[in-house]
Design goal:
With 210 residues, this protein is mainly β. 13% of the residues lie in helices and 38% in strands. The protein has two helices and 16 strands. The chain has a seven-stranded antiparallel sheet, with no helix packed on it. Strand 2 and strand 3 form a beta hairpin.
């Protein structure tokens, strides 16, 4: 075999080895499981999303996903992708406390020393949930059903209306509770008589399932 033929054979062998190495680096079955960071660009309705061009199935603990979330994704040895969830510091309302969008006639907080009326979306025992806290001052009379907020973001809206009981101003002649509802459209409303105004509501300890 000539020297040039030997060199060509060696170069071809090296090229084939490099090609196999690159293929192995890309094949999950060869390199095993792996994880990386990715940014969500598309939300699908079947429990999957697209992050950095990769279609990924969400873990049940990753509730209320949003475009722009920076998440941890992992790939199994057979090539399946899973999204573990977002990193800490994600934008509201996903896990962060967010001030309720109150309508005219309602203010927050109710006086000094009271907390601001807020909500956050969390995961509780595998189920999406919205927690609320703080107080809402009311300087308008309640009707049979009075809307307190404008619509919350889609991620914070329940699949069906949820009935709630809120604490309220109380005295010797006023009961310290009022019926409320969070509609499937994301609007918080309260029920009462035409007069007098309620003074304030307390949202501390209130939650509803999505």
């Amino acid at each position: 075999m000539s020297k040039s033929s030997h060199t060509t054979h060696r170069d071809l062998k090296w090229a084939l080895q490099q090609q196999a190495k690159r293929a192995g680096e890309r094949a999950p079955s060869v390199r095993g499981a792996d994880w990386r960071l990715a940014t969500v660009t598309t939300l699908n309705t079947n429990g999957t999303l697209i992050a950095d061009g990769i279609t990924v199935r969400r873990m049940d603990t990753y509730q209320a996903p949003a475009v722009g979330d920076v998440i941890v994704i992992t790939q199994s040895g057979n090539g399946n992708w899973l999204a573990w969830g977002r990193l800490a510091g994600a934008a509201a309302p996903n896990g962060a406390w967010t001030t309720l969008p109150l309508l005219a006639g309602f203010t927050t907080p109710h006086g000094a020393g009271f907390g601001v009326a807020q909500y956050r979306v969390i995961n509780a025992f595998g189920t999406g949930r919205v927690e609320m806290r703080g107080t809402v001052g009311c300087n308008t009379a309640l009707t049979a059903q009075t809307n307190v907020t404008s619509a919350l973001p889609v991620d914070a809206r329940p699949s069906a209306s949820r009935r709630l009981v809120l604490g309220r101003t109380y005295s010797a002649t006023a009961v310290g509770a009022v019926a409320a509802e969070m509609t499937s459209g994301g609007v918080l409303s309260v029920f009462g008589s035409t007069s007098p105004s309620t003074g304030f509501f307390s949202l501390d300890g209130i939650y509803y399932d999505l």
